Amino acid sequence: MQKIRHEPVAPTRTQHLAAGGEIDAHRHDGHQIIYASQGTIAVTTDVGSWVAPATRALWIPSGTVHQHQAHGELDLHLVGLPAAENPLGLGTPAVLAVSPLLRELIVAYTHAPEDDRPARRRLRAVLLDQLKAAPEQPLHLPVPTVPLLRQLHDVLRADPADNRCLDDLGRQLGASARTLSRYLRSDLGLTYPQWRTQLRLHHALVLLADDTPVTVVALRCGWSSASTFISVFRRTFGYTPGAPPAT
């Protein structure tokens, strides 16, 4: 059984992780904002995984067991908050949109975590105001609890470019498309196309962080063309996969 590290205080700090680097499973008694100003961060919990490029941050509530993995060279910024201070009012992990202003506030606030001067306290107050205004993004890839869906999840994670319809996948798994669709709605609250798109976008972010060409990413993730992939990516993340996000 994997040992879970307990941190009484959610730290505020900056940290560099090499590509492929990990932070093992842990939990802390406070909330935490996780932001990568460079690279792409993947956070995994018992209920799903979240992937965030430089236009997104992750909200991890107190007590949540989670682990991190770096895709690409990662500059990580961690903002810890006491358990009693929840500016978002969220009790589950979430992905948040990061505006250019919020980005600069997070980077500046984590630069000197031991500084407790009045100017830094004012910076923190503005940061929290901006967090409250940050819209939540539907980028969560939930882990199914139904065994049949876990099998489907494994098939699609192994090959995100698998374009078989649910009928064909159901025959492989010994279930009807109707049964799989019903489980997807009841267990994950998603349709099959919605879930598959989420899975593919998560995989695409990882490949892009490893400098995989856009056309190759599109094909490996199951899109019929690079232009179709670019359109879906831009609609989801607000920038094209061939260009870095505005900072």
Q: What is the overall silhouette?
A: globular
Give the ordered list of helices and strands: EEEEEEEEHHEEHHHHHH
CATH architecture level-2 label of the largest domain: Sandwich
Distance from N terminus to C terminus (CA atoms, Å) equals: 41 Å
Instruction: Round the mean pLDDT to the nearest integer and report it.
Output: 87
What can you see in these coordinates?
By secondary structure, the chain is an alpha+beta fold. The protein folds into 2 domains: 136 residues, Jelly Rolls (Sandwich); 94 residues, Homeodomain-like (Arc Repressor Mutant, subunit A, Orthogonal Bundle), CATH 1.10.10.60. It contains 8 helices and 10 strands. Strands 1, 2, 3, 4, 5, 6, 7, 8, 9 and 10 form a 10-stranded mixed β-sheet that branches. A hairpin with a 2-residue loop joins β4 and β5. 32% of the residues are buried. The model has no long low-confidence stretch (mean pLDDT 87).
Brief synopsis:
This protein has helices at residues 100-111, 118-133, 147-158, 166-173, 177-188, 192-209, 214-220, 226-237, and strands spanning 5-7, 13-17, 22-28, 31-45, 48-52, 56-60, 66-81, 94-97, 136-137, 140-142.
Protein traits:
ten-stranded mixed beta sheet; Jelly Rolls; alpha+beta; 8 helices; 10 strands; 2 domains; globular
List the helices and strands and how they pair.
Layout: E1 5-7, E2 13-17, E3 22-28, E4 31-45, E5 48-52, E6 56-60, E7 66-81, E8 94-97, H1 100-111, H2 118-133, E9 136-137, E10 140-142, H3 147-158, H4 166-173, H5 177-188, H6 192-209, H7 214-220, H8 226-237
Parallel strand pairs: 1-3
Antiparallel strand pairs: 2-7, 3-7, 4-5, 4-6, 4-7, 5-10, 6-8, 8-9
